[in-house]
Design a protein that fits this description.
201 residues; alpha/beta; Dihydrofolate Reductase, subunit A; eight-stranded mixed sheet; 5 helices
Amino acid sequence: MRKLIVQTFLTLDGVMQAPGGPQEDDEGGFTQGGWSVNYWDDQMGEVIGEATSRPFAMVLGRKTYDIMAAYWPTAPEDTGAKVFNDATKYVASRSPRKLEWSNSVLIEGDAADGLATLKKEDGPELQVHGSANLIQTLLRNNLVDEYRLWVFPVVIGSGKRLFADGAIPSGLKLVDSKVSTTGVVMGTYEPAGEIPIGSFE
């Protein structure tokens, strides 16, 4: 069995849209792209390095694939390009397409069914990067085994959220946490079943 891990950057109000630059994703008139860039420090780089130092495969929605495929194949080696270029990329797309980035594999048919099948196979962990729309499908089908969430100390007010309206209520268990010098909280969570409801009365 392979673990499927959602690894994403979030604002304090849960927005995950376009953390890396203004042109990354302006869908819906989003104007705050690039909100994560100026919070980066050495510790965050070390945590990313640790996550990519062991074998992994990537799971990407079509838009995130296009963004990453336009950057990483020609990015300098010292930016960590090699690990992303060498990794297998599983791409969810509703329409047939040619994938130019090395080691890219199109998920045929329904994305949830395809990923459920991949999880049953032997192989490295499956890391979902970005891919807001795909993540909603994964959440609805209870396919996520772990969340690596980096929460940045910014509030944006609107945009694509990790846990959008209609998310299935559930508990999470914090299994690891770190805080950057810039106030970014890096938490690792595992699903913990139903929310334990109680009362202070």
